[in-house]
Design goal:
This protein is mainly β. A hairpin with a 4-residue loop joins strand 33 (649-651) and strand 34. The longest helix has 20 residues, at 2-21.
Length: 1010
């Protein structure tokens, strides 16, 4: 008992003495950039072993010995800070970001890697880039944010996709990259809510993409969705609402101007003028068709609710979202709505021996759409070309019909009214994994992914009359349904080992992808009730018009891959990969392809001779080489399929028709994937404490492009598809960054730019070229693919000016023969390129590329206390656009305002030809540089300002933020169309046939987190 009392006495005494020799200091550690708490930060008494770590809210409490005067605060990715103690016992510590990001982790194929050890060319997009209000698709976030990545919206219509080119167009087919979401391939990103994404990594060079083999030639975009984190449960809700309007309308003639130009055109063609002066005096401005089809202040809104949290052994993240966007054209006929739900959970069992996870998402998309960029039809093209003399409605309430313009150009308001079509889908994605950690160095991960999608579409066409060539005499309905299923299985064994200064990581794995699907469609005409409410019931007066069709598909890919990473003391780096792919898409002689890569790196700042060079924080030099493939070539191209199209035959004297079938082409057992071989040299540097830069030079050569290869005519069937084309892309990429805190003011600047040179080196067709896309009013292709030129270059006549008088026409001759015998003063003068005395296809040439040579972006961010401001610019340069918005082949269609500067007498114009109704010289139908314009632009893509409140105790909220954002606020460009961002296929890029214009949007939003 005495001993117990003695121990108790000594304990109390020691406690009292210790309390007298220490004092408790409490506080919180925050990030200067956004004033958020930093959990896990280290708080230590300088020159002692006394230390603690901050909790999940960034708070700490430490007993500081008497006499200690300095506390040291540190955290991963932050600059260490020393604070001299005073009598203050409650501290609020703000840490600055470190310039170096070498400890950051990036996602690579089938794993992660420290940035300091990465030897490939990878660009990263973070959560902040994906949280831009109004961002419908995650791939839009890449626009202007990653050097060497060109992103163009296919259309401004809600729900439209984007075209992404990573280091240029490498094929005449699909140039879309491979998307990997949480380890599994996806067709596109429309079904993913951008706010569910944690990071996006763009694998640009072959060394980083070769691990994906036959699907990596166009680059790879790896997406990691948000997962739960250990700590208190968190609830976040965000809502924004915005209004959208068309950024600009085209400058067209009003009714009075139109009438005068038409009179002049008819007069120049020796025809009676259609308008009298008395009629013209009464016309005024007439109908502005662009305003008539516009939806002013079209709404856009989004709801986002998420729950997350967990412990060291289990985490969860759940989110729900509702996004809807109305189109700025065709009210209620051009809308997009998306519902998403996602659950992501992870667990650890058996003291970390077993890790498991499940990621499930479901998406429902509904869209209505109008025809755009068609070249001949659609309300946008009609609004541009419809004469302004015609009103929208007649006095009796019926839609007005033009007396002047015909064919596909009709009353666009009526066209919208009679448009009834909708489509949508429901997509389910389920991914699960199990990971066994046999030792700290060896683990096996097995994954299973399943995707199921149901597509539906329906259309209804009532009886209408828009003009003599646009009418229906019987109502009709159509519907289609499709089901597709994809299964992905993966097994990856990873081994890591550190032996003194040597670090190894090796992995081997295999993956099996299978897919199958069916589709069915049906239509009927002559409905019993001409009413959309009954359109899809089996009510038809003429059942003989009913038709149905269907089909099915299957796909399969089996792959084996391996990778070895090595570094010596973090100084000398090397990576080697190999993948073998076996695909059902290739011929029997090329079922399996092999895709190797190797890359090396040198962290120069690890060398002793760099120790005293304090201006350079880090410097890494890297080089890589590799091969990747492109299997996005379509199904069954290596076989000769059987077709029944146009193969009916009549037998016997009675002429009985029998359905026939025969091979549709010649098979090609040697068909294989397109192969891309790429070399990259790069430098990553961080310097002067607050600057960082990345520079890459690359050469990417794609061989084996798919073209129609020549065969003798006596074979009889269509020529087969073969690998007979090559293209080279060479370029340079530069990214620059700066960030620094000036007290409570934090500034960040990020800029990037790239240059790309595209050149076709071989085309193995019988003609040596491939004809590209047509424009609205030219029947022959305006683009071409040919060796020595870019893919899809503009193949046009060169306009040399306007003939001012007959003498100039007479002087333009060859050996006494007029080169343009049908020309009259005021007509275009074309260049006789080959000097043969006539204007024909031999005088067309490469006059410009649709591919931008330069791509750049600039992102500016500032934060002061609770305020934040962000401004983002992006742009393209060096490309051309073929303006095919006007139906020049219809002389009574409306004209752009530029026609007022036409030639109407000697010396009046040398850029715009005379107007007429005959056009024997082909001024408006010959594809020439008259229609070609510069596509350069600088766009203010986003600008936002917000204010954030933190730790609002009255409502127990961690954060409340309000903001206003503007998108597409202005565009600096010389292009006269709606928008210079004109997308398209490899052989149809840059042809504007009436692209749906992008909207200017103002968004107001608020978010709250608990």
């Amino acid at each position: 008992m005495r001993f117990f009392l003695l121990v108790l006495y000594l304990t109390v005494c020691c406690t009292v003495v210790n309390a007298q020799n220490t004092k408790t200091v409490k506080g919180v550690v925050k990030d200067v950039e956004d004033n958020s708490a930093i959990p896990g930060a280290t708080v230590k008494v300088k020159n002692s072993s006394v230390g603690v770590a901050t909790d999940v809210d960034g708070k700490f409490s430490i007993n500081v010995p008497v006499g200690a005067t300095v506390l040291v605060f540190s955290a991963i990715g932050m600059q260490t800070k020393e604070v001299t103690l005073t009598d203050q016992i409650t501290l609020q510590i703000v840490l600055n970001k470190q310039s170096t990001t070498l400890n950051d982790v990036v996602v690579v194929g089938y794993g992660v890697q420290k940035k300091s050890l990465v030897t490939g060319a990878i660009s990263s997009i973070t959560t902040k880039d994906l949280e831009v209000p109004g961002l419908m698709r995650a791939d839009q976030a890449l626009q202007g944010k990653a050097a060497g990545v060109t992103v163009m919206l296919n259309s401004g219509q809600p729900g439209a996709g984007v075209s992404i080119r990573i280091r240029g167009a490498g094929t005449n087919g699909s140039n879309d990259p491979l998307y990997i979401v949480d380890g599994f391939p996806r067709g596109d990103l429309e079904a993913i809510n951008p706010r569910d994404i944690e990071t996006m990594e763009v694998l640009k060079d072959a060394a980083s993409a070769a691990i994906y083999g036959a699907r990596g030639a166009n680059g790879v975009v790896i997406i990691t969705t948000k997962a739960g984190k250990a700590g208190k449960p968190r609830i976040d809700y965000e809502y924004y609402y915005g209004i959208q309007n068309t950024r600009k309308n085209l400058d067209l003639l009003d009714a009075t101007q139109y009438a005068r130009i038409q009179n002049e055109a008819f007069f120049n063609s020796n025809q009676p003028m259609p308008f009298s002066e008395n009629e013209i005096a009464k016309l005024g401005t007439g109908t502005n068709w662009q305003k008539e089809i516009a939806y002013q202040n079209a709404p856009i809104q989004n709801h986002q609710l998420s729950f997350s949290g967990g412990s060291d052994n289990s985490t969860y993240a759940t989110s729900f979202s509702y996004f809807t966007q109305a189109g700025t054209i065709a009210k209620n006929k051009s809308d997009f709505t998306r519902y998403t739900g996602r659950v992501n959970t992870t667990q650890k069992f058996l003291d970390g021996f077993l890790h498991t996870g499940v990621n499930v998402s479901i998406t429902n998309v509904q869209r209505d759409a109008i025809t755009s960029n068609s070249g001949n039809a659609g309300p946008i093209l009609s609004a541009i070309n419809m004469d302004p003399v015609t009103p929208v409605m007649n006095d009796d309430g019926t839609f007005a019909i033009s007396r002047y313009v015909s064919q596909e150009v009709v009353n666009p308001v009526a066209r919208i009214y009679y448009t009834n079509g909708t489509s949508g889908y429901t997509r389910f994605n389920g991914d699960a994994f199990g990971e066994l950690h046999f030792t700290k160095d060896l683990k096996l991960r097995s994954s299973l992914g399943y995707a199921l999608q149901y597509d539906v579409s329906a259309g209804y066409t009532p009886i209408y009359y828009l003009n003599s060539t646009n009418q229906t005499i019987a109502s009709g309905a159509s519907a289609a349904m499709a089901e597709s299923k994809y299964l992905n299985q993966e097994n990856v064994l990873t081994y890591s080992k550190v032996i003194k200064r040597n670090s190894f990581t090796a992995l081997i794995g295999n993956t099996v992808n299978t897919g199958k699907g069916t589709n069915v469609s049906a239509s009927k005409n002559g409905l019993l009730y001409d009413d959309p409410a009954y359109a899809y019931l089996d009510l038809a007066k003429d059942n003989t018009s009913a038709s149905a069709s269907g089909g099915a598909f299957h796909s399969g890919l089996i792959s084996y891959f391996g990778r070895v990473n090595y570094d010596y003391d973090g100084k000398y780096l090397a990576t080697a990969t190999m993948r073998a792919d076996g695909s059902y898409r290739f011929g029997p002689n090329n079922k399996i392809g092999y895709f190797p890569s190797v890359s090396v790196g040198w962290n120069v700042t690890k060398e002793k001779f760099m120790e005293n060079i304090t201006a350079i924080n880090s410097l890494k030099v890297r080089a890589s080489w590799g091969r990747t493939g492109n299997d996005n070539i379509g199904d069954y191209q290596y076989v000769s399929t059987i077709s029944t199209y146009a193969r009916n035959y009549y037998f016997g004297s009675g002429g009985t028709q029998v359905v026939g079938a025969s091979p549709s082409g010649v098979s090609n057992d040697d068909l294989k994937w397109e192969t891309s071989e790429q070399t990259d040299l790069g430098i990553d540097a961080e310097f002067l404490g607050n600057f960082n830069a990345t520079l890459d030079l690359y050469k990417k050569e794609t061989i084996g492009l798919l073209v129609t290869i020549p065969i003798p005519l006596y074979v009889g069937n269509s020529a087969p598809t073969g690998n007979a084309g090559n293209v080279v892309n060479k370029g340079i990429e530069l990214s620059l960054g700066y960030h620094k805190a000036f007290g409570k003011l934090y500034l960040e600047v990020n800029a990037n730019g790239s240059y790309n040179y595209n050149n076709v080196t071989y085309v193995g067709t019988s003609s040596g070229f491939i004809t590209g896309a047509d424009a609205s009013n030219q029947m022959t292709g305006v683009t071409r693919m040919q060796a020595g030129n870019p893919i899809g270059f503009f193949w046009l006549y060169t306009m040399q000016g306007i003939f001012q008088n007959q003498a100039e026409i007479n002087n333009y001759q060859k050996n006494g023969v007029l080169i343009q015998p049908n020309a009259v003063p005021g007509d275009i003068k074309y260049l006789d390129l080959n000097n043969d005395g006539k204007i024909d296809n031999q005088d067309r040439s490469n006059v410009g590329t649709p591919h931008p040579k330069y791509n750049y972006g600039l992102n500016l961010t500032a934060r002061y206390k609770g305020f934040d401001v962000n401004v983002f610019f992006n742009g393209l340069a060096g490309n051309k656009i073929y303006n095919s918005l006007h139906r020049w082949d219809l002389p009574t269609a409306n004209y752009p305002i530029a026609v007022l500067n036409r030639w109407h007498g000697e010396g009046t114009s040398n850029s715009f030809p005379r107007v007429s109704t005959g056009d024997l010289n082909g001024n408006f139908v010959n594809p020439s540089t008259f229609f070609l314009e510069d596509g350069d632009y600088l766009r203010l893509r986003n600008a936002s300002i917000g204010y954030t409140l933190r730790d609002i105790k009255k409502i127990k909220a961690k954060t409340i933020r309000v903001y206003v954002t503007g998108t597409n606020l202005f565009v600096l460009t010389k292009y006269t169309g709606f928008d210079p961002e004109v997308s398209g296929s490899a052989l149809g890029l840059g042809i504007d046939r009436g692209v749906y214009p992008q909207a200017r949007t103002i968004i107001f939003g608020a978010s709250i987190g608990f």
